[in-house]
Amino acid sequence: GPKAAMEGLFKGKTNIICEVEKTAFKLQERALAIFQIMGMRIRYMSPEAHDKHIAYVSHLSHISSFMLGKTVIEKEKNERDIFDMAGSGFESTVRLAKSSPEMWTPIFKQNKENVIETLDEYIQNLTKFKEFMESDDFDEIYNEMKNTNHIKEILKGISLTR
Length: 162
Fold this sequence. Notes:
Layout: E1 14-17, H1 25-37, E2 41-44, H2 47-75, H3 79-85, H4 88-93, H5 101-110, H6 112-134, H7 138-148, H8 151-160
């Protein structure tokens, strides 16, 4: 509730608005004014585009985090070893695995088709990486990582617009 409010919580955050045409213009104006006061970035898109994009930038991150956590828990039966050996990179990568299954299961169910499509693409990339490892093609592994490093420029641009 209001007592838990944090000033600036939504500043620079993206608010995706779908089907704006289904909302009375006066209500649109009022909502937009509130969002602007909060310092939010506004994006308009169809529900279909929203679901497709969110499967890539949100849902896949959560699935990766949950499954990495599962892989480590199953392999490293000694929890003390996990605690002692895991560094900040591992901790930040599995941070999303602490999310609520009660919240995420229905989200995955509702967006099942898009999630499966993104998983297929992600699995293809993982398989390709594994094949490079198996064939000792570390030049190609380097190239894959180097090309993917471009993500930092994309994310830097996101933080600049917030």
